[in-house]
Amino acid sequence: MKLQERLPEGVTVNGKFFRMDFDFRNVLRLLDEMARDDLLPEAKLYRALHCLMKHPPRDAAPVMEAVKGLLFPETKQNAKKDKITDFEQDADLIRAAFLQSYGINLWRDRLSWFEFSSLLACMPEGSRYSEILGIRTRPMPPATKWNAEERRWLAEAKARYSVHMTDKERAQQMADGLRSVAISLLTLAEGGGAHE
């Protein structure tokens, strides 16, 4: 979003404007609805859009695509990155960090998703949330004869503060791993057959 642009108040699809409330709580509710496995896809889209607007359209799919493009423009680029924060697991840390760093009380203050996500992404050092993100993202240094204690501390800290995966995320990670192994085996088999 350009610096001179106003905060979005909705999306336009096929020439029709759909007004929406992009308060960060509503967007988090939308994400919760989209993660549900107990609903048919059409019902999931309708319920998710209902988090942002009173009367979602019957044909919710194109509106949801426009909403996703507006709210999460970098999702496709960052799809393979490890998850470093979880809005449920880190809720208290995020609330405390906003209050400490910006004087914003997320229990009471109204904040657009765009403001919330920008401030969260640029959280200054000094909060417990920033410290934990630093631990989660810090690479493990190569082993030397001098850093065994540092590596042990970092491994324990990473385990203590890791983002807990849901069963669905764990299953997806396993499926991705199996897919990678299968591709590697197929590549080896094709390469081996070429030399015979």
Structure keywords:
196 residues; mainly alpha; two-stranded antiparallel ribbon
Quick check: average pLDDT? Answer: 87
Strand content: under 5%
Q: Walk across the major sheet and give the strand order.
A: 1-2
* SS field, number of helical segments: 8
Total number of beta strands? 2
Give me a quick take on this structure.
The protein is mostly helical and 196 residues long. Among the domains are: 62 residues, no CATH class; 70 residues, no CATH class.
What's the arrangement of secondary structure elements?
Blueprint: E1 10-13, E2 16-19, H1 24-34, H2 41-50, H3 60-71, H4 91-102, H5 113-121, H6 128-137, H7 148-160, H8 167-195
Antiparallel strand pairs: 1-2
Helix pairs in contact: 1-2, 1-5, 2-3
Descriptive notes:
The chain has 196 residues and is mainly alpha-helical. Among the domains are: 10-71, no CATH class; 91-160, no CATH class. It has 8 helices and 2 strands, in the order E-E-H-H-H-H-H-H-H-H. It has helices spanning 24-34, 41-50, 60-71, 91-102, 113-121, 128-137, 148-160, 167-195, and strands spanning 10-13, 16-19. The protein has a two-stranded antiparallel sheet. A hairpin with a 2-residue loop joins strand 1 and strand 2 (16-19). The model has no long low-confidence stretch (mean pLDDT 87).
